[in-house]
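Backbone shapes recur. Consider a single case.
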Amino acid sequence: MSKETKAWREEKANLLTEMKAIQARAEAGKSDPLDDQQWDNLESREAELSKLIARSERVANLQASLDAPTEEQRNDRQADGPPVTKEEEYRGAFYRWATARKETRLAESDIALLEKRGTSTQIGSTDNLGGYLVPDGFSGELEKYMALYGGMMEAARIRYTATGNPFPWPTVNDTSNKGAIITQGTGGTVGDVTLAEVAFPMAYTFYSKIMKVSWELLQDEVIGVEGLLSELAGERIGRIANEYFTTGDNSGKPQGFITGASSGKTAASATAFTRVELVDLMHSVNPAYRNSPKCYWMFNDSTLAAIKKLAFGSGDDRPLWLPSMRDGAPDTLEGKPYIVNEDMASVASGAKPIAFGDFSKYIIRIAKGYTLTSTRERYWDERANGYAVYARMDGRLVNTSAIKYLTMAS
């Protein structure tokens, strides 16, 4: 952990102490006229610190990819050095294809490598080379950036399939069955296991939209085209995918987990919720799912702000929300980590602003990796290439008992 990150975490701890003092004065009826303004300032600073810490962790996670050797460095290896792998050969050919201009012709060896790996179906008005499957390193970077937007790629279980064809996912809920003790010579009884399946349809095609990149930028050795495109496409696809994985209505789009889940608690108010209601929501989920390492709370940032103002009550002014003081450990609510998902609804009449449960029961299917297409003719007069990334994905909640949500009163 860097010195800056350590200092930010220590400052968060101090902010929490001040926020607890303000909360205690409010519950004792001894609020200071300036407490509201001070609370807002503390909350604003806490949110800023959380973003700084998250960015620091993001930089650490991406450091390995930034330290990876460039294509030029790989080409400069000595003849007696380690052999170049098939993946490195493909990555080199892919890079030369992606950065080529309108007048550039690829070497036959590069075309052979790309076509041997597999091409996509011709899409739209791309040039005669069509689209190619991205290298493994590009896929990894793309998914890193996708996971930064919204939280569903982080929370859910991801399953990769060779094709985008429909396939069944077997499910079982055996939480009501338990074993038994039998005496000598006694026959065993049958505890039936009820199997079912959730049908995944043809995978839906997600599209980054066209990204124009100037020739000058492509020539810049400091900014690699792989890193640039994986970041841009990851952000774009990540935003739309997270929206559908959260609230998709299962009609021409994935089934969002909110659509597949059921209500675990209805709040008494249309505009606020209580600690008791959060506890009821938590315990509406079977303990078998609550004990899962993928069990999370999920809500948006405005709901998090409301949660931070809640205390245990009954003379106990400790806040429900507790910031982590350890590097790598998550902030918690009622002892469970949470994920901020901006595609969750805000608190309002009839809304579903808070979810809790085992998100490993939400399956995101990604079919055959990702495809990058390039057009070099469409923007030649602007001295730019156009790129688009396509991802075939779907999402389903395979166990509707595993996740529950809070419903606000109407």
In short: Residues 117-130 have pLDDT under 50 and may be disordered. The first helix runs from residue 3 to 27. Residues 121-172+194-300+341-410 form one domain. The two ends are 46 Å apart (CA to CA).
